[in-house]
Structures are given as C-alpha cells and as structure tokens.
C-alpha cells in the first residue's frame, strides 16, 4: 500500500510537472535579430533582453563573433544564416564551407545552434548555388560531428510560390520549380524543414481590394476561405498551407515548414501602425501553438524583428518592423 502510495504521488507529481511546463513550451516564439542599425544595443544587452522576455530562439543572418560570444551559455536556440554573397563559393568549394563551420560553429561550443539557413530569399542568378552549398554544409557539419544541426534555406512567398488559390492549389512557381523541387526532395531526405518567410502584411498591401484586413490580422470572426474540408480564418494559415501544398506537389509532403520570418510594421506605410503591429504579433504568438488546418501542432515561428533598424534599405516600412526601439523600450506592448 505505502509503496503504491509513493508511486502514485510520484506519478502525480510528474504529470503535474509536465502540465505546469507545457503552456510555456507551446507559446515559445523566436525573434529575428537584424543588425542594420547604427544605434542598436550591444549583443550582450540584446541577449539579456531576449532572456528577460522569455524569447528562447533567435535568428541571425550571418555569423558575427560578438553575437556568438554573447550567446555562449545562454541556451537560446540559434538559426544562423549563410550570407547570399557566399553561396557561389560555398557551392563549389567544400573547404570554404568547412572553414566557415570551424570558425563560426565549432569555435562556439557553448552556443545552441539549431539550424543553418543557407541563403535568405536568394535571387535568380544565384539560386542554382543553394542546393550544392546545402550539401557541402551538411558534409562539413557531419565531418565536425555536428550533424544534429539541421541545414535549410529561407525562401519568400513571392520568390518561390505560384500566385495560386486556394491553399490546396499551391505549387512552386514555374521559375522556382527547377531548383525548389530538388531542394524539397533533399530536405525530405535529411529530415530538415523548409524555412519560409510568411507576411500576410505584404499580401494584404498587394491585394487590398480582395483581402479584408481582419483576415490578415487574425481578427476575422469566422471562416473566410473554405477549401474542401479545410476552413481558413486567417491569412497566415492559408499562406503556410499554400507552402505545404507546394511541397506535396513537389513530392516532399513530409518536409515541415518553419516560419523563419513573420511580422507587421508599426509605421511608414499602408496599414502600418503600432495598433495593427501589436494585434498581428500578439495574435501570432497566441496562434503558433495550434498549427494550421493542414498540419496540427506547433509551428516554429520567428517574428521579424527584434529592433527597428534605421539603416535598412527599401520602403519606409522596412525600418519599422521592430518589437523594440534601439533603446530597448517596447515599440508597443507584447506579452511573450
Ligand atoms: C562571404 O562574403 C563576404 C562578403 O562578400 C566576404 O567578405 C567573406 O570573405 C565571405 N566569406 C567566406 C567564408 O567566403
Ligand atoms: C488553381 O490555380 C490555377 C492557376 O491560378 C487556376 O486556374 C485553377 O482554377 C485553380 N484551381 C482551383 C481548384 O481553384
């Protein structure tokens, strides 16, 4: 009896312990740390800010020794990019990749590397380099005993998807199919995800006559798009599931999607306000635990971005995607 009692209490404690930690795991979110600003905090202050907000994953776009140093011992899971300008060298020269791994990965055993993104929104003329560079990266990591780090590439909706509707009709575009189909099949063989930058904001701005902003902001009261048996109440899910359909049509339906960027600007253009950015990002944080109609379960997601970056080029909105101002004050209130 007594023995059973102890076992029961231990089991109960374990069950309660698991229940107690589950919500935090479900809600965890990553944030992209872009560095195109001349007034940003030091990397060690940035790491402290991530930790104080409970942000447990970070994406950076290329290696930087001061950032890697600051992350040492933090346990923040890191997605690190290979810069697009390095892809052609990395496609043709395995030793350049091995050196990169040595200098930027092996040199930081206290950093919790999760993914290497071999390129971000790679443009035509360079896309043929992505797959061989990914293969060289997997070989270099494996030779270094680091094959637990998954190798992927980060792509945009406009860059690789055909403009097709509804989500079940998604395919890669005719221009992207020639390189995305082999990449998708390769990811299926390595068990790595495809990293997708998903912006309902830009889809809404491009098609304001067809898209209700509520569908983009996760505030529609009910189903907006019925696609066979799948009911869509927000554009984020529709966009992620369009990627899943494209992977399926490429014969790589087993590849999971990681959302490597998503966000909403707080100033600088159409529908860009602190209120809309707060609504989008807070709802995104609440939503990612649920998965999409096509794929239940948590969608690993990285918000773009940690800071407003005053040196970013392009449209005015590009400089206003930050959750925080450079002085570390919140751009608007978000609960992580
Ligand atoms: C990557 O590209 C940058 C910019 O062109 C260059 O300075 C750097 O040497 C390259 N790194 C490697 C490892 O090829
Ligand atoms: C799928 O997309 C194509 C191209 O836009 C379109 O012609 C076709 O009608 C779509 N299929 C469905 C079922 O909507």
Automatic annotation (TrEMBL):
UniProt keyword terms in alphabetical order: Glycosidase, Hydrolase, Signal
Gene3D superfamilies, alphabetically? Glycosidases
Biological process (GO) annotations?
carbohydrate metabolic process
- The signal peptide, as residue positions, is 1-20
Q: Which InterPro entries match?
A: GH, Glyco_hydro_17, Glyco_hydro_17_plant
- Answer yes or no on keyword Hydrolase: yes
Decide whether keyword Phosphoprotein is in the record: no
Q: Annotated Gene Ontology MF terms?
A: glucan endo-1,3-beta-D-glucosidase activity
One Pfam family of this protein, by short name?
Glyco_hydro_17
Of which family is this protein a member?
Answer: Belongs to the glycosyl hydrolase 17 family.
* Protein name in the entry: Beta-1,3-glucanase
Q: Which organism is it from?
A: Oryza glaberrima
| Phylogenetic placement of the source organism | Eukaryota, Viridiplantae, Streptophyta, Embryophyta, Tracheophyta
């Amino acid at each position: 009896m007594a023995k059973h009692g102890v076992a029961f209490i231990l089991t109960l404690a374990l069950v309660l312990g698991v229940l107690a930690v589950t919500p935090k795991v479900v809600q965890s979110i990553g944030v992209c740390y872009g560095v195109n600003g001349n007034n940003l905090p030091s990397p060690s202050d940035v790491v402290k800010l991530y930790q104080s907000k409970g942000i447990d994953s970070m994406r950076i776009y290329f290696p930087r020794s001061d950032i890697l140093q600051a992350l040492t011992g933090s346990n923040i899971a890191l997605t690190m990019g290979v810069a697009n300008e390095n892809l052609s060298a990395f496609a043709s020269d395995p030793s350049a990749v091995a050196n990169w791994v040595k200098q930027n990965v092996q040199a930081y055993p206290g950093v919790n590397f999760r993914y290497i993104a071999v390129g971000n929104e790679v443009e035509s003329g360079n896309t043929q380099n992505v797959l061989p560079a990914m293969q060289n990266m997997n070989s270099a990591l494996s030779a270094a005993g680091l094959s637990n780090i998954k190798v992927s590439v980060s792509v945009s909706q406009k860059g690789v998807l055909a403009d097709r509707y509804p989500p079940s009709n998604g395919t890669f575009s005719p221009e992207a199919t020639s390189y995305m189909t082999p990449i998708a099949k390769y990811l299926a063989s390595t068990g790595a995800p495809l990293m997708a930058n998903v912006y309902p904001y830009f889809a809404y701005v491009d098609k304001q006559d067809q898209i209700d902003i509520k569908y983009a902001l996760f505030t529609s009261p009910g189903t907006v798009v019925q696609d066979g048996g799948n009911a869509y109440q927000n554009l984020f899910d529709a966009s992620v599931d369009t990627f899943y359909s494209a992977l399926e049509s490429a014969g790589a339906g087993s590849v999971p999607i990681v959302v490597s960027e998503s966000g909403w600007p707080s100033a600088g253009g159409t529908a860009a306000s602190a209120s809309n950015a707060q609504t989008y990002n807070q709802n995104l944080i609440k939503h990612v635990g649920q998965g999409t109609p096509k794929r239940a379960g948590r969608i690993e997601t990285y918000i773009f971005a940690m800071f407003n970056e005053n040196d970013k080029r392009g449209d005015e909105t590009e400089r206003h995607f930050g959750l925080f101002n450079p002085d570390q004050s919140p751009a608007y209130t978000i609960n992580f």
